[in-house]
């Protein structure tokens, strides 16, 4: 029997979840809206808002899961990677809580947890599988051999796919974080209206930095000729950019699947909420006979449910850490 309380605070969402015998029975997410005023996450503000949110989020998670503090058998937390000030709030809280309850502490790598989110609900992938993890900070193709035996086989050399979405949104004067809004407009636009070159990057790696700049130059050039270009073509621009990003991601994922001879294919991270990527994955599954896995929406973007399930699998192995643990902004995979 195990009840694990998990805390995620790596970026701008404070999240607390409960895993009761391998089932997620609470996943509270307190979003921070203050960053919308600045067009991006302000680390110092994020850290302060985590401090305000963490106790109410823990209380709400206990209520939702219908358990009390005394029922908790372990406390899991995101150690990194992420914003140091944000991580510090979650790690400090987890340590104090575990100490007060006299239960073990479980350290979780945020990027492992995005992948392990696939083990929350059925259907679950079988090992080995490939996972494309696409978020605001990361773009990786991971060969997953077991719960904690994973290898990055391709990754971005510069910016993440989520940043390409968010930067595009910013250029189009859409509010932060713009990825979901680009997705929304894209659904009404023509994906072939404008063409953006696919970066030619070796192996299974990605690059989105030049791609981002090419969108900037394209929009500037069009605006010189027609100052209302964005307003008149918003849906088509979003659809075309989204189509290009999805092509870049899917081409590498297909290459990886072929190279490793694997047909169990998963996606994870905030960008896996993208409708274009979901459609692209479904198409590839139909064409190539893949079994595909996409976590429920609430487990795609940052959430403590994924930390809780990762914590549960570490709990089974009695993989605990001591009170001397500290957060790591850059944490090895
Ligand atoms: O995993 P996540 O919540 O946080 C990080 O660890 O980075 O991912 C956030 C990223 C942001 O860049 C956001 O714009 C993007 O995921 N995102 C989307 C969509 N939903 C979230 N991008 C495109 N389409 C979406 N529907
Ligand atoms: Zn994340």
Automatic annotation (TrEMBL):
Cofactor(s) the protein requires to work: Fe(2+)
GO molecular function: tRNA N(6)-L-threonylcarbamoyladenine synthase activity
Residue span, Gcp-like domain: 23-308
Protein name as catalogued: tRNA N6-adenosine threonylcarbamoyltransferase
Protein's cellular compartments: Cytoplasm
Keyword terms: Acyltransferase, Cytoplasm, Iron, Metal-binding, Transferase, tRNA processing
Cofactor binding, per record: Binds 1 Fe(2+) ion per subunit.
Catalytic activity: L-threonylcarbamoyladenylate + adenosine(37) in tRNA = N(6)-L-threonylcarbamoyladenosine(37) in tRNA + AMP + H(+)
Family: Belongs to the KAE1 / TsaD family.
Domain of life of the source: Bacteria
Organism encoding this protein: Pedobacter vanadiisoli
E.C. number(s) listed in UniProt: 2.3.1.234
Binding-site residues, Fe cation: 110, 114, 302
A Pfam family reported for this protein in Swiss-Prot or TrEMBL: TsaD
Binding site for substrate: 133-137, 166, 179, 183, 274
Summary of the function given for this chain in its UniProt record: Required for the formation of a threonylcarbamoyl group on adenosine at position 37 (t(6)A37) in tRNAs that read codons beginning with adenine. Is involved in the transfer of the threonylcarbamoyl moiety of threonylcarbamoyl-AMP (TC-AMP) to the N6 group of A37, together with TsaE and TsaB. TsaD likely plays a direct catalytic role in this reaction.
Broad class of the protein's primary localization: cytoplasm
Enzyme category, top tier: transferase
